[in-house]
Amino acid sequence: MALSQLLSSSSRSGNRLKSLSSAISLRHPISTDTTPITVETSVPFTSHQCEVPSRTVQTNAKELLTFFRDMALMRRMEIAADSLYKAKLIRGFCHLYDGQEAVAVGMEAAITKKDSIITAYRDHCTFIARGGTLLEVFAELMGRQAGCSRGKGGSMHFYKKDSNFYGGHGIVGAQVPLGCGLAFAQKYCKDEAVTFALYGDGAANQGQLFEALNISALWDLPAILVCENNHYGMGTAEWRAAKSPAYYKRGDYVPGLKVDGMDVLAVKQACTFAKEHALKNGPIILEMDTYRYHGHSMSDPGSTYRTRDEITGVRQERDPVERIRKLILSHDLATEKELKDTEKEVRKEVDDAIAQAKENPVPDSSELFTNVYAKGLGVESFGADRKEVRATLP
Amino acid sequence: MALRNIMGKRVGIGLMGSRALSTATCDVESGSAKSINLYSAINQALHVALETDPRAFVFGEDVSFGGVFRCTTGLADRFGKARVFNTPLCEQGIVGFGIGLAAMGNRAIAEIQFADYIYPAFDQIVNEAAKFRYRSGNQFNCGGLTIRAPYGAVGHGGHYHSQSPEAFFCHVPGIKVVIPRSPRQAKGLLLSCIRDPNPVVFFEPKWLYRLAVEEVPEHDYMLPLSEAEVIRQGSDITLVGWGAQLSIMEQACIEAEKDGISCELIDLKTLIPWDKETVEASVRKTGRVLISHEAPVTGGFGAEISASIVECCFLRLEAPVARVCGLDTPFPLVFEPFYMPTKNKILDAIKATVNY
Question: Name one GO biological process term (chain A) (predicted).
Answer without folding.
Answer: pyruvate decarboxylation to acetyl-CoA
